[in-house]
Specification:
Layout (H helix, E strand, L loop, with lengths): L7 E4 L5 E4 L22 H13 L10 H8 L12 H7 L10 H20 L12 H30 L20 H18 L18 H21 L8 E2 L5 E2 L1 H14 L27 H5 L21 E5 L16 H5 L2 E2 L8 E2 L7 H6 L6 H5 E3 L22 E3 L6 E4 L2 E4 H5 L15 E5 H12 L3 H9 L9 H11 L6 H8 L10 E5 L2 E5 L15 H6 L12
Parallel strand pairs: 6-7
Antiparallel strand pairs: 1-2, 3-4, 5-12, 8-9, 10-11, 13-14
Length: 572
């Protein structure tokens, strides 16, 4: 339900600002008069506490945004930007010339962890039966909340561990992360897996057709099963191919482990019982496919000619779109102004990765980060509709890019940009402004605040491809290929890699695939002809194997720890 587009900011427990996207239990209690001892005792307070947990998904610093970082690091995107975007070029080139580039990612990780810990520690102190019609509903509420909190704690640790490796494991409120040493990578992933396992075993198995609109966006059992598979594949691949410690098991904190058979069971459960399913057309997942009434005509002629219709981003019963059963977990973004959230609650992937210096219809402008490596375009079969469904080709009238100014200010310009997360705009009653500004009646006309597109973190196509990888069968691969109208293939690692590249391009997964497969050591050999500020140039990026796919641990945290925390290899 898109009522969550207007966020309610609440000052809640421990004085943190939270953003809440549900209004079931909201009351007019003065937040400054909350009793710490009695907090978490009502559904309202649990809901507010989860608002704080989910608010930690947003990073203040855009270069600490997990999808921005991962895309810049991958071999399918160049740095781009302009002369004032040196940090993008540093990330892309595996250099750190300034300290603490990714510190905000780590800071928000522990915000989310601590807020999750608060729920885990306190919810079972209270009896919730008075708030529900029967005891079972109260039990289900508590189980969902406990499992959701465990999942979110594991999620935040997984998000950070993929960039930093072993982490200080903070498992109770009040524990100091600066005096808690970094756990090893196996210890860190054991905690992640244990949290996910607890979440899977605790949260009720509710099909998505039975989840009310005001719960859209909350983690559930299906989300936990999907991310358990992601954690398993990343950990076992990383340890085998980057650390040279071959393993096929994901450890648990109790000494047990999660095996490939366990993961297959989780994915089978999700596929059979969740209600999630592929959209009928891959291209309908992305806003450029919207049948846009406010434009007065087709916003993107190609999409109109292809008969596309955006499924929307609000589950099975959307206010806009045809109904989205494919998205499993996403970050909701909102309209904003500079006094209310600013860029942080907008989708900054769309802003930063939009075309630089050109305001076209239907594609608006942004900062021009992440121009697409032309190798991807050139090796991608034209018969695959995901090619044009994923990449904007400059100079193509069908795409509305024929008036692109080639003398623009961007660096590393290849003539290709991502189409999944980009500014979409059209001419209407208010002039040429963002499609989302028309859809959600956003009065703000600042192009930096137009991006209300959800950031998808997990979708059904990824689940099917993970299922093929786990089972070493082509069933999931071919289900995804059939959706694209492509013939079936037999299972092979190469077929899996190609399918993940083409299905999931620019969604922040390519970098982690390169790392876990060990392909990162040989992926960065391209010398690419580009345009820099309108002048011909050459681009190449050289990966440094000594960093083992990890980013620099924030130096400020190391200093604050008085030597307890240590730096990652290759970044001293």
């Amino acid at each position: 339900m898109k009522r969550s587009i207007q966020y309610l900011l609440i000052i809640a427990l421990l004085g943190f600002a939270i953003a809440c996207d549900t209004d079931d239990f909201l009351t007019e209690v003065n937040p400054f008069e909350r009793d710490l001892e009695g907090f978490y005792s009502t559904p309202t307070e649990i809901d507010e506490a989860f608002g704080g947990v989910y608010h930690a998904l947003y990073t203040d610093d855009p270069v600490s945004h997990e999808i921005i970082i991962a895309n810049l690091l991958s071999d399918m995107m160049l740095a781009g930007g302009g002369t004032d975007d040196a940090v993008a070029k540093e990330i892309d080139a595996f250099r750190e010339t300034r300290e603490d580039v990714f510190r905000d990612l780590l800071r928000k990780t522990y915000d989310g962890v601590n807020r999750s810990n608060g729920i885990i520690e306190n919810i079972e102190r209270f009896d919730f039966t008075q708030f529900f019609d029967n005891e079972q509903d109260a039990i289900d509420f508590v189980n969902q909340a406990i499992g959701e909190a465990y999942f979110m704690r594991g999620f935040f640790y997984l998000r950070a561990a993929k960039f930093f490796g072993g982490l200080p494991l903070i498992l109770e409120t009040g524990q100091d992360r600066f005096t808690t040493g970094r756990s090893t990578i196996p210890e860190t992933y054991a905690q992640i897996a244990s949290d996910f396992k607890k979440a899977i075993e605790t949260m009720p198995a509710v099909p998505i057709s039975q989840i009310p609109g005001n719960r859209y966006g909350h983690a559930n059992k299906w989300v936990a099963e999907a991310f358990m598979a992601r954690a398993y594949l990343y950990y076992t691949g990383y340890m085998t191919n980057m650390e040279g410690q071959a393993t096929s098991e994901l450890p648990l904190t109790d000494g047990g482990s999660v095996t490939a058979t366990d993961i297959e069971g989780y994915l089978n459960d999700l596929i059979a019982n969740s209600g999630h399913a592929l959209a009928t057309d891959f291209r309908n997942l992305w806003p450029y496919a919207h049948v846009n009434q406010s434009a007065g005509n087709a916003t993107l002629p190609w999409a109109d000619n292809e008969g596309l219709a955006w499924v929307g981003q609000d589950g099975l019963f959307p206010t806009i779109g045809t109904g989205n059963a494919e998205t499993i977990f996403s970050v909701r973004h909102s309209s904003a102004d500079w006094n209310f959230g600013g860029q942080k609650i907008n989708n900054r992937v769309a802003l930063f990765f939009s075309i630089r210096g050109n305001s076209l219809v239907p594609f608006g402008q942004g900062w021009g980060w992440g121009p697409v490596n032309p190798k991807l375009w050139n090796q991608w079969d034209d018969a695959d509709p995901r090619k044009q469904g994923s990449i904007i080709e400059i100079g193509n009238p069908d795409q509305g890019t024929q008036n692109y100014d080639q003398s623009g200010e961007g660096d590393h310009n290849t003539g290709f940009f991502n189409k999944k997360y980009t500014s979409v705009q059209h001419d209407g009653a208010r002039g040429v402004i963002a499609m989302f500004a028309y859809l959600y009646n956003n009065p703000n006309t600042d192009m930096q605040l137009w991006h209300s597109q959800d950031m998808i973190l997990m979708r059904m196509a990824d689940v099917l491809l993970m299922h093929s990888e786990i089972t070493q069968t082509a069933t999931g691969i071919n289900t995804v290929r059939a959706r694209a109208g492509l013939p079936a293939v037999g299972y092979s690692v190469d077929a899996l890699k190609q399918e993940r590249l083409h299905e999931l391009a620019f969604e922040g997964l390519r970098w982690f695939d390169l790392v876990r497969w060990g392909d990162v050591n040989t992926a960065f050999t391209d010398v690419i002809n580009v345009r820099n500020l309108g002048v011909d140039g050459v681009y190449n990026a050289t990966y440094r194997p000594e960093i083992k796919g990890l980013m620099p641990f924030p130096q400020t945290d190391i200093r604050l720890s008085n030597g307890v925390l240590t730096q990652n290899p290759g970044w001293n």
